[in-house]
């Protein structure tokens, strides 16, 4: 039996109005539902995890949702693989589990950014603790422009952006350096707070790549003294509070896949400096993000 036209119309009206009022501003990978009292509850695509839409979603949960979305064919697969994303296991709190494994049973330990920081092993591999990434370096490049920007103004605009768009308290922005067209931002945070620097970096990365996690038409806009600063490139480097556990052989044999950086033991620091110098030269020529496609690693030089 068909429902009367009035009921159908009312239903359509209710569905559209609830769809409008009930969305998750900070996470488009969600399905939201409004209850009778009008409360909006949003759950991550493909899981039962409830998302707090007034703050950022953790990187682990985002990666998980994106992988689910790929499986459901919400988006082209090629693009995701290019991003070096894997399907992570997250704790209830949303942080990465210290040990991650792939379907083939290969396991490795990650930091709070979800990046591999040890050699690989089998299922017997033990990761005692999740090591904190307490330092994130972001390098941005903006499009050529005829405008001249003062370093101080750029720093101010970006601090404003981080505070408003990514809800990061300015005290975690250790430095912003500007040397046109490159911008370096150092984020430092020793303990996880309501918004983690790693999550902020991930949201920003998505924004710059034109694949914003924010809902609907919330595109990234940075304006310095009323003039557009169009960011076209981003690189993110992660530094953990403890050195990664790669053997020198692993490290030297595969410099192109160095994962997490730590500046602590002398031997390691020297190698790191060499890598950094080479990288810097290379960057001058071409600032382009290169990533591994097969390995569950997010960082490469
Ligand atoms: C809905 O929101 C109100 C006010 O914020 C709150 O008191 C109430 O407990 C919520 N109801 C549910 C079912 O969460
Ligand atoms: C959601 O996040 C905001 C901002 O961090 C916080 O104040 C609020 O308590 C959170 N709500 C829940 C239900 O956790």
TrEMBL record:
- Ranges for domain Thyroglobulin type-1 come to 57-127
Q: Which CDD domains match?
A: TY
Question: What is the membrane topology here?
Answer: Single-pass type I membrane protein
InterPro entries associated with the record: EPCAM-Trop-2_C (IPR049420), EPCAM/Trop-2 (IPR043406), EpCAM_N (IPR041630), Thyroglobulin_1 (IPR000716), Thyroglobulin_1_sf (IPR036857)
Q: Where is the signal peptide?
A: 1-21
- Which PROSITE patterns does this UniProt record tie to the protein? THYROGLOBULIN_1_1 (PS00484), THYROGLOBULIN_1_2 (PS51162)
Q: Which SUPFAM superfamilies match?
A: Thyroglobulin type-1 domain
Keyword line? Disulfide bond, Glycoprotein, Membrane, Signal, Transmembrane, Transmembrane helix
Where in the cell is the protein located? Membrane
Membrane-spanning residues: 255-277
From what superkingdom does this record's organism come? Eukaryota
| Gene Ontology CC annotation, any one | membrane
> What's this protein's family per the entry?
Belongs to the EPCAM family.
What's the protein called, per UniProt? Thyroglobulin type-1 domain-containing protein
Q: Which organism is it from?
A: Bambusicola thoracicus (Chinese bamboo-partridge)
Lineage per the UniProt record: Eukaryota, Metazoa, Chordata, Craniata, Vertebrata
């Amino acid at each position: 039996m068909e429902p009367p036209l009035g009921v159908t119309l009312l239903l359509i009206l209710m569905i559209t109005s609830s769809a409008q009022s009930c969305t998750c501003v900070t996470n488009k990978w969600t399905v939201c539902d409004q209850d009778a009292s009008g409360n909006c509850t949003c759950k991550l695509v493909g899981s039962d995890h409830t998302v707090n839409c007034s703050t950022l979603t953790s990187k682990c949960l985002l990666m998980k949702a994106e992988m689910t979305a790929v499986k459901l064919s919400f988006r082209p697969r090629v693009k995701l693989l290019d991003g070096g994303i894997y399907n992570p296991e997250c704790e209830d709190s949303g942080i990465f589990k210290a040990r991650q494994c792939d379907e083939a049973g290969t396991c490795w330990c990650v930091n709070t950014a979800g990046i591999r920081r040890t050699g690989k092993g089998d299922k017997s591999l033990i990761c005692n603790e999740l090591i904190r990434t307490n330092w994130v370096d972001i390098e941005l490049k903006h499009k050529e422009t005829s405008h001249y920007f003062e370093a101080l103004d750029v720093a101010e605009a970006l601090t404003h952006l981080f505070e408003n768009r990514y809800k990061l308290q300015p005290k975690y922005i250790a430095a912003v350096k500007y040397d046109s067209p490159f911008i370096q931002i150092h984020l430092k945070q020793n303990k996880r707070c309501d918004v983690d620097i790693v999550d902020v970096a991930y949201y920003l990365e998505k924004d710059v790549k034109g694949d914003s996690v924010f809902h609907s038409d919330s595109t990234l806009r940075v304006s310095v003294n009323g003039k557009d600063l169009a960011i076209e490139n981003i690189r993110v480097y992660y530094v953990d509070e403890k050195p990664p556990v790669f053997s020198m052989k692993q490290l030297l044999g595969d410099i192109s896949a160095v994962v997490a950086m730590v500046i602590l033991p002398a031997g390691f620091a020297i190698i790191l400096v060499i890598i950094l110098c080479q990288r810097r030269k290379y960057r001058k020529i071409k600032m382009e993000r290169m990533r591994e496609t097969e390995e569950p690693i997010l960082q490469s030089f």
